[in-house]
Write a structure and sequence with these properties.
It is a single chain. This protein is of the alpha/beta class. The protein has 2 domains: about 1-115, NAD(P)-binding Rossmann-like Domain (Rossmann fold), CATH 3.40.50; about 120-215, Regulator of K+ conductance, C-terminal domain (Alpha-Beta Plaits, 2-Layer Sandwich). About 30% of the residues lie in helices and about 25% in strands. It contains 8 helices and 10 strands. It has helices spanning about 10-20, 35-45, 55-60, 75-90, 105-110, 120-130, 140-145, 210-215, and strands at about 1-5, 25-30, 45-50, 70, 95-100, 115, 145-155, 175-180, 185, 200-205. The strands form 2 sheets. Strands 3-2-1-4-5-6 form a 6-stranded parallel beta sheet, with helices on both faces. Strands 7-10-8-9 form a 4-stranded antiparallel beta sheet, with helices on both faces.
Length: about 220
């Protein structure tokens, strides 16, 4: 099976390695020059620099023979375009897209994307389960309290990389509850220093969610 993965953050990187170890042919596409060079040193020709939302890149990647295209960048708009190019231009049999904002899942489904994965929704379901204290945090309570869960993956050009949590310009009513680093979940502390590839999970009041996402937004390459 030939799988093209667009986006070489933690999700794309570990997915590519898992599929490769299972014996599948994999191509990992990454647009960031430094990230791409780093992964090429480790993974060789299975890493390609380019933008998966551009037809010529996907053509060069051999999308016309791909069995599956996985769009797992940190941008929902990019993931939607990548999936549509794969499905409607190259007739890829199956498309899978990461959805960072769960409110966009319906759009992906309406536009014919075969499968979507929302880590935020997964976290929501976990929150509904029993926790160590024996209490239950129901999802409905979060909604009534107008609280959102924000899950962002830090890229190499994210301005907060290298900073401690206590030094971040977080908006009011924000609580960073978990950091996933190299497939391991960790409880953050004030002096925890953020690293490229970290997935940061936070609770924030709904009105401040856009401001929080801006704090973690990656700078665009010139």
């Amino acid at each position: 099976m030939y799988v093209i993965i667009v986006g070489a953050g933690n999700v794309g990187y570990y997915l590519a390695k898992t599929l490769m170890n299972a014996g599948h042919e994999v191509l990992l596409i990454e647009r960031d020059k430094r990230r791409c060079a780093l992964l090429q040193d480790e993974l060789g020709e299975m890493v390609m620099r380019g933008r998966g939302d551009e037809i010529h890149t996907m053509r060069e990647a051999g999308a016309d023979r791909a069995d599956i295209v996985v769009a797992c960048t940190g941008d929902d708009e990019d993931n939607l375009i990548i999936s549509q190019i794969a499905k409607w231009y190259f007739n890829v049999p199956r498309t899978v897209a990461r959805v960072n904002d769960p409110r966009n899942e319906g759009i992906f489904q309406q536009l014919g994307i075969d499968a979507t994965v929302s880590s935020t929704n997964i976290i929501y379901h976990l929150i509904e389960q029993e926790i160590e204290t024996g209490e239950i945090i129901p999802l409905a309570a979060l909604k009534r309290g107008n609280i959102e869960i924000v899950d962002v993956e830090l890229g190499p050009r994210t301005p907060v990389v290298g900073k401690r949590i206590q030094d971040l310009p977080l908006p009011p009513d924000t609580l960073i509850v978990c950091i996933i680093r190299q497939e391991n979940a960790m409880l953050p502390h004030a002096d925890t220093e953020l690293q490229p590839g970290d997935s940061v999970i936070a609770l924030v009041s709904a009105q401040n969610a856009p401001q929080l996402r801006n704090v973690f937004a990656e700078e665009q390459e010139a």
